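Collaborator request, handled under Task 6.
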Amino acid sequence: MQPGTYTLLVELAAPATVEFGARGEYDLDAGWYAYTGRAFGAGGLTRVERHQRLARGKSDARHWHVDYLLGHPESRIREVYVTENEEIECETARALNEAGTPLAGLGATDCKCATHLAYSPERELVVEVAAARHERQF
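Structure tokens returned to the collaborator:
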């Protein structure tokens, strides 16, 4: 599979406290969370399939901050947007953070961004940005 950048749109059906590994606990509101990542290593965008397996309960391995959210029983990946062969991770995350509420300290440990995870109480806000930034849905 090609390398690229992706955005996961995750619905959290009810408020929850989620422990994000060493980052600690975050009290999260019900609503929509948009996580943007990149997959330029071996396997490319198959990383999205790995996130989907974890979200379905078919895996317990947590490597990235978003995995802790995906492993919560009240969360579901509802949509995935991808752009192949382009590294647009930080620009996309910044746009999503401007449209929603950034969750500081999550999902951006290998760059200078404050976060790559944004929250919105309404789906449309994050869908509009993700769809505009990416080539297609996965």
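The cover message to the collaborator said: "The chain has four helices and eight strands. The chain has one domain: 4-137. Please let us know whether this matches your experimental observations."
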